[in-house]
Each structure stands twice: as structure tokens, then as C-alpha cells.
Specification:
single chain; 297 residues; alpha/beta; Rossmann fold; 2 domains; six-stranded parallel sheet; three-stranded parallel sheet; binds NADP nicotinamide-adenine-dinucleotide phosphate
Length: 297
């Protein structure tokens, strides 16, 4: 079997067309665009790159972006005050704090400061708490898990009753995507660094979400034939043959997996395009929620 390799870009493009129409409708109704405020602390090159990509993606769909760039030694007060300024700014409807923050900062306190109506990245403890509770609806979802669910729906994967294995339990990917899969009636197993016999769980899995952060860690031989794999991992590896000297690979070894699985997301360009798109989509939703008016039907 040769797997379907899933490109997230066309799926994201379709959503962005709708987002651009909605942003235009907001602008027409209110005379200014929906706005995303970003707080970036420090000079981590990957974080800076993600923030640049988000700004460009906003520009393309007609959403304004406002960045607070703080030095790596910024104090807790500095960061919380940047968040509060964005909370108070009527032009800003969604707020993203780029994670991870430098170690000396208390991430939870920073995220708690985001006004929950502006929590377009679904990072506020109240939104995460609602996600975890049966019958409660968060205002916003964490962007990467929301993007993963969009891909699974686009593929037409039947989640109800499916065995889903999530590898990783981070606050931004593993834990929330496991909750979303459970909400979609999958039977969910969460594996992590202390899990014994990971391969036994994977052998039963109809759907695998790999969010480990280890290049090519999961071998195709561990996977159930025909399963669907969402490879979230984005791992930089040396590649002297490429112009830059490096490239990105996923957590799943594509070469061995492609002969076994039914479908697998590519890295890069699988989940990544959806992550940014979901953030901007939720910013536009936040704008209409806060100011009123209606999106394009
Ligand atoms: P993280 O916070 O480092 O979490 C990694 C998780 O993997 C942890 O729960 C850890 O377990 C688990 N783990 C580590 N080694 C393991 C092993 N040998 N077997 C099973 N589980 C193991 O990472 P993250 O923020 O979730 O990100 C994961 C990956 O996704 C990274 O490559 C990141 O760059 C990528 N990512 C991509 C996007 C995107 O939009 N494409 C967005 C976010 C993240 P413990 O909890 O026991 O330590």
C-alpha cells in the first residue's frame, strides 16, 4: 500500500478564502479590520519565524496584526502589561502569546491575563477547562489541535468508535487534541515518555497523532496497516545536500510509514498551515463576537 500524503496547504487555502471574505465583511461593517495582537518575548529564531509567518498570513486575509516584541530579560510585569495593553486596545480582538516563554517567566500567570473573549489561541485556562468538561463549549480552541481536527474531517475519517493514539501530552498539542478526539467519540489513548510498549498501542490505532518532537521516531512497522497518521512533529535535522544545510522532518519515519499507512500528513506543510489559519479564523470570530455584525454565510 502506498499512503496518501496529505498536503495541508490546499485545505488551509480554502479556509483562508472564507476568512478573507469574513474579514472584508467586518471591515465594511465597522470601518476597520479585525486585529490580532502578538506578544513575543526574546530572540528565539523559531519563535521569531512563527511570528513573521503569522503576520504575513494576517496581511494576506486583511487582518491587522500588532506585535509587542520584548527582550529576553523582560520581567513578569513587562509581559503581563503588554497583554493588558492588548486587552484594552479596541482594535485588537485576538491575542496570541508566543510560547514557550523564557524560563524565568510564569507562563500560567501570563496566559491568565488574556481576556477570555480575546483568547484566539485557546490558551486561557478557562477555555482549556471548558474543553476538558463534558457539555461545556470553549470560546476558542488551541490552534494546532483545531487544525488537526480540520484535516481529519477533510479526509472523511470516521472518528466515532475509532481507536486513536496520541503520542505526547503537552498543553498546546497532545492534551487538547486528545480531548477533541474524545469529544468526537474516539477511544483515546495518550502515550508519553513513560509509556511502556508504545508499539502495542500503535498496533491497535486507527488514528495516530504524533506530537513528540523527535525526528523519525515512529517506525512504519509499529503502525496498523491503513491507519491515518497526523504527524505534528517539526524537527530540524542537518542536511548537507540542501542549500540551507538543514531540513525539517516529522516524528514519523515517512519512508517506512508510507508503505503501511492509509494517509499521513507531510512535514513541513501538513499541520503547520492549518495552525496559523485556525488562529486567524478565531481572531475574526472574536472580532464579530466583541463588536457585533455578521460574517459572510
Ligand atoms: P513538548 O512540549 O516537548 O511535548 C512532547 C511530548 O512528547 C511530551 O508529552 C513527552 O512526554 C512526549 N515524549 C517525549 N519523548 C517520548 C517518547 N520517547 N515516547 C513517547 N512520548 C514521548 O512538544 P510539543 O510542544 O507538544 O510539540 C511536539 C512537536 O510538535 C514538536 O516537534 C513541535 O515542534 C511540533 N509542533 C508543531 C506545530 C505545528 O503547527 N506544526 C505546532 C506545535 C508543535 P512527557 O510529557 O512524559 O515528557
Amino acid at each position: 500500500m502506498t499512503a496518501q500524503i496529505i498536503d495541508g496547504n490546499p485545505i488551509a487555502e480554502r479556509l483562508r478564502d472564507q476568512i478573507a471574505r469574513d474579514a472584508q465583511a467586518f471591515q465594511a461593517q465597522h470601518g476597520y479590520p479585525p486585529g490580532l495582537g502578538v506578544v513575543l518575548v526574546g530572540d528565539d529564531p523559531a519563535s521569531q519565524m512563527y511570528v513573521r509567518m503569522k503576520r504575513r498570513a494576517c496581511e494576506r486575509v486583511g487582518v491587522a496584526s500588532y506585535a509587542h516584541l520584548l527582550p529576553s530579560d523582560a520581567s513578569q510585569d513587562d509581559v503581563e502589561s503588554a497583554v493588558r495593553q492588548l486587552n484594552d486596545d479596541p482594535k485588537v480582538h485576538g491575542i496570541l502569546v508566543q510560547l514557550p516563554l523564557p524560563k524565568h517567566l510564569d507562563e500560567e500567570r501570563v496566559l491568565q491575563n488574556i481576556r477570555v473573549e480575546k483568547d484566539a489561541d485557546g490558551a486561557h485556562p478557562l477555555n482549556i477547562g471548558r474543553l476538558a468538561m463534558k457539555g461545556r463549549t470553549p470560546l476558542f480552541l488551541p490552534a494546532t489541535p483545531a487544525g488537526i481536527m480540520v484535516i481529519l474531517r477533510d479526509l472523511g475519517v470516521e472518528l466515532s468508535g475509532a481507536n486513536a493514539v496520541v503520542i505526547g501530552r503537552s498543553n498546546i498539542v497532545g492534551m487538547p487534541v486528545a480531548l477533541l478526539l474524545m469529544e468526537a467519540n474516539a477511544t483515546v489513548t495518550i502515550c508519553h515518555s513513560r509509556t511502556k510498549n508504545l508499539q502495542d498501542y500503535l498496533a491497535q490505532a486507527d488514528v495516530v497523532i504524533a506530537a513528540v518532537g523527535r525526528p523519525n521516531y515512529v517506525n512504519g512497522a509499529w503502525l496498523k496497516p491503513g491507519c491515518t497518521v497526523i504527524d505534528v512533529g517539526t524537527n530540524k535535522v542537518d542536511d548537507p545536500s540542501s542549500e540551507k544545510g538543514y531540513r525539517y522532518v516529522g516524528d514519523v519515519d515517512l519512508e517506512s510509514a508510507r508503505e503501511v499507512v492509509g494517509a499521513i500528513t507531510q512535514v513541513p506543510g501538513g499541520v503547520g498551515p492549518l495552525t496559523i489559519t485556525m488562529l486567524i479564523q478565531q481572531t475574526v470570530k472574536a472580532a464579530f463576537n466583541q463588536v457585533g455584525g455578521s460574517a459572510v454565510q
